[in-house]
Amino acid sequence: MIDGYGCLTINNSNYKAHQIAFVLSTHTSILPKMGLCHHCDNPKCVNPDHLFVGTQRDNLADMVEKGRANRSPRTWGENNPKAKLTESDVRKIRALLRDGLSQRSIARMFSVTKCPIQMIRQGLAWRHVA
Length: 130
Prior knowledge:
alpha+beta
């Protein structure tokens, strides 16, 4: 899971489960700079009937319209109540990746899936940790 979304690895690339479900059910691809939004506001949902194509701006507008806008500062890293890793863990993970250990082995060591390890490796998660 990444940010509450189911995650699949296909041919060594990570995808969010709802995106795969949408593409398979509609036989269309998601255009660059576009994303998928949930009518149901449930990140775990993969029901294509609950998804619609939109930009990040569309998704934010939908959030505000539904009264889900969180006005408090965003919590990053360890401050996020859903975080399973610590900043120390992330530094260790990066060192293990540099040493050539496989993402799968590292994931097992930290009791997480391979997806967050790949996100760390690609610089898409925990960017604030030096």
